[in-house]
Amino acid sequence: MFSTMKKLAVAAAFGASAVAASGAAQAQTVVIGQFGNPTPMQAARAEGAFEAATGWDIEWRTFNSGAEVIAAMASGDIKLAELGSSPLAIAASQGVELQVVMLAQVIGEAESLIVREGAGIAALEDLKGKRLAVPVGSTAHFSLMGALKHAGVSEREVTILNMPPDQIAAAWEQGAIDAAFIWQPVQSQILQSGALLVGGDETAEWGYPTFDAWVVNADFAAENAAAVAGFVRAMDAANAAYLADPAAWTADSAQVKAIAAATGAAPDQVPEILRGWTFLPLSEQLTPKWLGGAPATMKATAEFLQAAGRIDSARDDYAPFVNTAIGDAALK
C-alpha cells in the first residue's frame, strides 16, 4: 500500500531545511479532526501552540464518532485527526490510507458503562433484556462487546442502540435507555442519576485495550513530515505539562478553565475527567509496548470485530498503518 517512493518522500522531507519547511507551510490551512475531549491538548490549543509548532493555519473540526472521522479521512476532507483504536482498526482493514503517528491517550474510566438507578443492573449479567446505548464502531462499543463477551452475555440478549453522545444524553433524560457505554463529558452528566458498572480500564484487563490515536493521511505525512513532527512535538509538550504536576490542574487553574471553555465541560469536573485517562510521554510511546506493538493490537482488534460481524475481514499485517519516523523526528 505504501510504496518505497512514499518512504523516500518522508526521508527527503525530514532532510529538508526546517526554515524552508516552515516557510512553505505558513499559508497552508489544515483541517484537524478531534473529539472535543477535555484533555491537556485543549489548553495548548487555546494558546495557539499547534499553529506555532507547524506554521499552519488550523481549522479544528469536532466529530461525534470514529465513524465520522473515517468518512472524512476517506473522502480527503481532513488529513489529520484523532481516532479511537477500534475505528482505527476498521479504517485500516478497509484500506483507508492513514498512519498512526502518536497516541492521544490510553482510555481508562474516561469511557465506562453507566447504568441507570432503578434499572435493576448490579452486574454485567443483569444487562440481559436491557436497552444499551453506545456509538457503534467506537472504542466504547468495542469495550462494551468485550464486557458482554467476558460476562457470557450474547448480543442477542440485549438491545444495542446506536447513538452519538448528545443523543445518549437526551435518551437518558427521557428514560429511554437503561445503560450506556460512553465517554466524557456525557458520562459525568448521566452519572448524576446512574452508577459506573465497568470502566475501560477493566475491559482492557480482560483483553480489550482501547486508546485514542492521532492519525494522518499517508501522502500528507510524506509531503509535510517536518510540520507533522512539529504537531506531534506540541502534543507531547501539552501532555508533559499535565504530567509534570497533575495536582496543579484544579478547577481554578488557567489550564482547566481553558479546557472547560473549549469543550463545554464544567471546570470542577475536568480534574476528575483527566484522571480517567493515561497520557504517555512520546518517548514511552515509541517503545515495543505501545507504537511498536500497535500493529499487533490493531490486528487483534480487527479479528475481534470480524468475529463479531462488524467488518468483513482482517488484514494479515497492520504495520504499514503505523509511522514511527514522525515521532522519532519530533524527539530530535
Automatic annotation (TrEMBL):
GO cellular component assignments: periplasmic space
The signal peptide annotation in the UniProt record is: 1-27
**Keyword tags:** Signal
Tell me, what's a Pfam family for it? NMT1
Q: Which GO terms describe its biological process?
A: alkanesulfonate transmembrane transport
- Gene3D superfamilies for this protein: Periplasmic binding protein-like II
Q: Which residues form the Solute-binding protein family 3/N-terminal domain?
A: 29-246
Tell me which domain of life the UniProt entry assigns to the organism this sequence originates from.
Bacteria
Which InterPro entries does the record associate with it?
Answer: Peri-bd_TauA (IPR010068), Solute-binding_3/MltF_N (IPR001638), SsuA/THI5 (IPR015168)
> Could you say which protein family the record assigns here?
Belongs to the bacterial solute-binding protein SsuA/TauA family.
Question: What is the official name of this protein in its record?
Answer: Taurine transport system substrate-binding protein
List the taxonomic lineage: Bacteria, Pseudomonadati, Pseudomonadota, Alphaproteobacteria, Rhodobacterales
